[in-house]
Amino acid sequence: MHRYRSHTCAELKKSDVGKTVRLSGWVHRVRDHGGLLFIDLRDHYGLTQIVADPDSPCFKTAETVRGEWVIRVDGEVKARTAETINANLATGEIEIFARDMEVLSSAKELPLPVFGEPDYPEDIRLKYRFLDLRRDTLHKNIVARTRIIAEMRRRMGEAGFTEYSTPILTASSPEGARDFLVPSRIHPGNFYALPQAPQIYKQLIMVSGFDRYFQIAPCFRDEDPRADRLPGEFYQLDLEMSFVEQEDVFQTMEPVMRGVFETFAEGKPVTREFPRIAYDVAMRKYGSDKPDLRNPIVMEDVSEHFRGSGFKVFANILANDPKAEVWAIPARTGGSRAFCDRMNSWAQGEGQPGLGYIFWRKEGEKLEGAGPIAKNIGEERTEAIRIQLGLSDGDAAFFVAGDPKKFVSFAGAARTRAGEELNLVDRDRFELCWIVDFPFFEWNEDEKKIDFGHNPFSMPQGGIDALNGQEPLSIKAFQYDMVCNGFEIASGGIRNHLPETMVKAFEIVGLSRETVEERFGGLYRAFQYGAPPHGGMAAGIDRVVMLLVGAKNLREVTMFPMNQQAYDLLMSAPAEATPQQLRELGLRVVAQKKED
User: Fold this and answer.
1) What is the pLDDT of residues 507-539, one digit of tens each?
2) Residue 86, Ramachandran bin (φ over 0: left; ψ between -120 and 50: alpha; else beta)
3) Cis before 574 (ω within 30)
4) 334 Cβ contact list (under 8 Å, min separation 6)
């Protein structure tokens, strides 16, 4: 028999009754039932119940073991009685009567419990991540992550893609975040950068004549903590295709991503055909470029019902600002004063003066609007609003007014809040869509200049003619995001493969031809020698896994994450370099002055 095990802790069934077996694993928990000891033994695969009675030769050893000790057990497989069968356990029909037991490794008092998975401070969980990873939910999430990545690889291969690796030590790139810099010992005073994404390399792969590239790519960004991204590093399904238009990318990647979701959705419905929603439409309807389409609330412009009305706050805003509009957020089943007051209080907590509302209720046979706005604008306008929004008895509508560019984020947050509070969101489904036609440029208010809105390497719609003849802020790009349940899970675009178009786009944001040639020389040179039209995207693996396993944050689907301060509590990183290391690199650490 093998030194440690003949079977795993999830393998034995009723058909194995009578066999002598050997198992090894961790003591999940010990229960003492009046001298009869029950030990739940756990390994990577599952649990098996071990029974030791006072007549067993290993009973004295069994009495000493504690949670998370590692033991080897020899014993006989026996059938459980009908009343003790555990249907929730793969091995729930059998148990092992222990005949021999060896302690392979003992455990100190645990800094956090494994059994039961109670809530515990995150810093403790991250410091002792090797214990945290023994917890069933997190362990299953990590296994699911690996299976999801394998499924992505399989489907990409079936779609005709080949996996190629790109460098980790590279040059700095303008992806929109700070680079992690790596000092060079051989070239003192010079630095490599860890890739924020393989963007330029994958375009060079297309220029090099490879047709369909993908990789599970590590990406590194020295960003401040964000709720929707792990600090430091993350992984993405990165891909690029030659001789394609935007629709080709959609037609290729929809089946891949839909198939991945369907494989791991555990029966939850997945969108069959991904809607294509223009960026401007998404912002007006949902107040977000990553809308949760499970929320049925769709915002509408109701400005005309308030223009010249008795509700002077909105009427004056519309009269004095040509950009101003009034948007309605319809909330079916929200027609109570208590709910409307809660939404108003929430808005004030968000730094707003409030959130105007109307709610409709039956007064005898008559359906009437109630609330301060309804009183001020009168029955006719109130009824016109109700008809436009398709509302009825027991429904409500909330209103925001002003320049939409300034209130759109708040309006989107109010839509989300109302949908969640009223339980309008169908949580047991995956709703995916494409957001398309992003603005190519945007106005940088801080620097008072035009900047790229999304990805500087994308092709503007209309090409160089648009760059030469169109107002820059009106130009759209061949850029797109894939969105699922309110999360951006992928982003991509058709690339700008023409050197003069590339130079012109960068000139509009203030970078000269010389600067482009210097900063993006590899790509710029490649475009001089026959570049195919190409495009692609990158899907965030961490977010996809988080959605599929139902985790609440990205650290629940990552094996060894940093904390929110970008510190690795397990390995104590980052750490100071030794004086010898600094000398070899020609570096000196200068203490930074603390800001008052």
Assistant:
1) 999 999 999 888 888 899 999 999 999 999 999
2) beta
3) yes
4) 340, 343, 359, 395, 396, 418, 421, 422
What SS3 class is residue 397?
strand
pLDDT of 132-159, one tens digit each?
999 999 999 999 999 999 999 999 999 9
Classify 213 as helix, strand or coil: strand
Using DSSP, state whether 489 is helix, strand or coil: strand
Query: Rounded to whole angstroms, how far apart are CA atoms 482 and 467?
Result: 26
- Which helix (H) or strand (E) segment is 280 a member of? helix 279-286
Q: Which helix (H) or strand (E) holds 49?
A: strand 47-52
CA distance 305 to 307: 6
Structure tokens at 130: 């090797």
Q: Is 430 helix (H, G, I), strand (E, B) or coil?
A: strand
Q: Is 87 exposed, middle or buried (0-12, 13-18, 19+ CB in 10 A)?
A: exposed
The three-point CA angle 414-324-337 to 5° equals 35
CB 196 within 8 A of CB 177: yes
Q: Contact 243/401 with Cβ under 8 angstroms?
A: no
How many residues does this entry show for the chain? 596
Nearest to 396 by CA among 330, 449, 317: 330
Dig out the tokens for 298 from the structure: 């769709």
Strands (E) located in 204-288: 212-221, 232-242, 276-278
Q: Please give the C-alpha separations between residue 468 and each of 169, 365, 454, 500, 513, in angstroms, as whole numbers.
A: 37, 62, 20, 11, 15
Task: Tell me the whole-structure pTM to 2 decimals.
Answer: 0.93
